[in-house]
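queue> pop job 88
queue> type: inverse folding (structure -> sequence)
queue> payload:
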């Protein structure tokens, strides 16, 4: 337990791994979505991770999101964790250290495998020397970087193609970088394909990776993955699942309907409430699936 009586996020993930369940990670850039996450996590009685990407942090403000999450933790007593999602540079990591984040996702997966190792090692060294309680998660294999609707599979720097690593590469990456959790590409994708189903997860690869690293495994790009694939991935060792795109889609689709129906309403909180409810329902159903709650 840490001084605020919450288990640390690494402890929560270790427990999830032992229980063969997964913790949910959901991104936000507005207060209505933040409350949707908190209320859904309370309803299902599960800890939850709130993610803010670089773009989301720019919009909300790093000290602001930190203070708000800390205030909600005090008010609700619910275990909430704050993640600086997808930092693409050491500078971006430096901006969040000292603001009470529980974890950092460092993402150099758009670079070559060796450059990814080198850049991640540098970030892990910096974070360990600044705040040893903060843990770093990183990505191996390239799954794109955009939580949006895509026309085709993503490409990275130097035209890097969508790719999955071998289990040996993931083990090497973990040993050489010292990360606290790793998100290997196993067929998952950031964003959702507009005109096709997202690829299936490679569950044999996940088995091989789970057998070769002794760390929490993270699944990014959870949008567009079927319930059955989620359950199989969790059974095989995924302990944390990131979702963003499908929350954005639910939020926007509902907002469009609301704006069409409520032509005379101008109060933002009235216009946003149906979107908040839609995001709440989606998160609640995902958390129930991830934590095997069956009510
Ligand atoms: Zn991600």
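queue> result:
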């Amino acid at each position: 337990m840490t001084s605020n009586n919450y288990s640390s996020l690494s402890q929560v993930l270790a427990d999830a791994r032992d229980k063969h369940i997964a913790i949910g990670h959901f991104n936000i850039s507005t207060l209505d979505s933040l409350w949707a996450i908190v209320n859904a996590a309370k309803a299902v009685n599960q800890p939850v991770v709130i993610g803010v990407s670089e773009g989301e942090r720019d919009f909300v403000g790093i000290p602001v999101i930190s203070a708000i999450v800390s205030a909600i933790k005090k008010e609700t007593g619910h275990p909430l964790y704050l993640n600086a999602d997808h930092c693409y540079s050491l500078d971006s990591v430096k901006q969040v250290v000292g603001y009470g984040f529980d974890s950092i996702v460092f993402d150099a997966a758009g670079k070559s495998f060796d450059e990814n190792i080198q850049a991640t090692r540098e970030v892990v060294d910096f974070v360990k020397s600044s705040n040893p309680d903060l843990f770093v998660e990183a990505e191996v294999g390239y799954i794109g970087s955009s939580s949006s609707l895509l026309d085709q599979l993503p490409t990275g720097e130097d035209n890097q193609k969508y790719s999955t690593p071998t289990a040996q590469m993931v083990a090497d990456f973990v040993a050489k970088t010292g990360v606290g959790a790793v998100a290997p590409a196993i067929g998952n994708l950031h964003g959702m394909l507009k005109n096709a189903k997202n690829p299936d997860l490679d569950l044999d690869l996940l088995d091989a990776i789970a057998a070769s690293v002794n760390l929490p495994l993270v699944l990014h790009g959870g949008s567009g993955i079927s319930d059955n694939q989620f359950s199989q991935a969790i059974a095989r060792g995924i302990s944390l699942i990131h979702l963003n795109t499908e929350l954005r889609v639910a939020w926007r689709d509902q907002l469009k309907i609301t704006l069409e129906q409520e032509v005379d309403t101008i109060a933002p909180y009235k216009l946003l409430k149906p979107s908040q409810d839609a995001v709440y329902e989606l998160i609640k159903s995902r958390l129930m699936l991830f934590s095997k709650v069956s009510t």
